[in-house]
Amino acid sequence: MADNGIQIRVRDLHKSFGGKTVLTGVDLDVHGGESLVIIGGSGSGKSVLLKHLIGLLEPDEGTVEVAGVRLDSLSHRELTRFRRRFGMSFQEGALFDSMTVGQNVAFPLRRQTDLGPEAIAERVTECLALVHLEAGVETKVPSELSGGMRRRVGFARALAVEPEILLFDEPTTGLDPITTAVIDEVIQEINHATAATSVTITHDMASAFRIADRIGMLYGGKIIALAPPREFRALEDPRVQQFLGGLTDEQMTRAAG
After folding, report:
1. Please, which residues have CB within 8 angstroms of residue 42's CB and are 6 or more apart in sequence?
2. pLDDT class for 257, splitting at 50, 70, 90?
């Protein structure tokens, strides 16, 4: 992990929906170049936190600062431009069904850059290769792909404009263990091959141990624990240990390296 200082700073973040409190004062620093994984149970607010990082949601209280810029200081137009610093991979890939794989990956390049058709095609091929998808997949449509392949196309699209920050929303949900391991390997390779900071949210502890430089746990609307994988699994907090309960010592040792 290359530590380039604090790239994302979250302070006292609160968010409620219809009277239901989700976040109750999140404090979090994300260092430049690191792979941070946020874990937590279903409904713990992981996706809500992730959407605040990219400005898709506004806090009820608190602040989100990215690269020294407070998101609440930006106009709608400025925030739209600022989001170009991010690449986001949504749950299930969130691909456009009516577009081919190549068109899906090219979509942000056409909207956000002045690249010509040849340069876009070259970049699409580069991104698909980075996520281990072979030549020829560009002409397929999402319905012709497996779940794991759709996730990887989503990764390729997120990488297309060479963002500073990558956000992965539950990248392995619903996948079998073998495909999950492949997705984790791809995320690791992306983290090593790019200078981007990455934030991944998941409830899959085996994945978290494989891909994280640090792991944070969201519980009760706050980050209650934050540490590198080896230190995280040694924490005595009973809430952490209960969450780790589904992972055997052998799995944790193998995943954490």
Report:
1. 203
2. very low
Q: Residue 219 half-sphere exposure, CB side, CA atoms within 13 Å?
A: 13
For the stretch 15-67, pLDDT in tens is 999 989 999 999 999 999 999 999 988 888 999 999 999 999 999 999 999 99
Count CB neighbours of 250 within 10 A. 8
Q: Helices (DSSP H) in 15-88: which residue ranges?
A: 46-53, 76-82
What gap in Å lies between CA 182 and CA 177, rounded to an integer? 9
Determine the CATH number of domain 6-90+166-256.
3.40.50.300
- In this prediction the pTM is 0.87
189, 197, 201, 169: which is closest to 93 by C-alpha?
A: 169
- Domain chopping of the chain, boundaries: 6-90+166-256
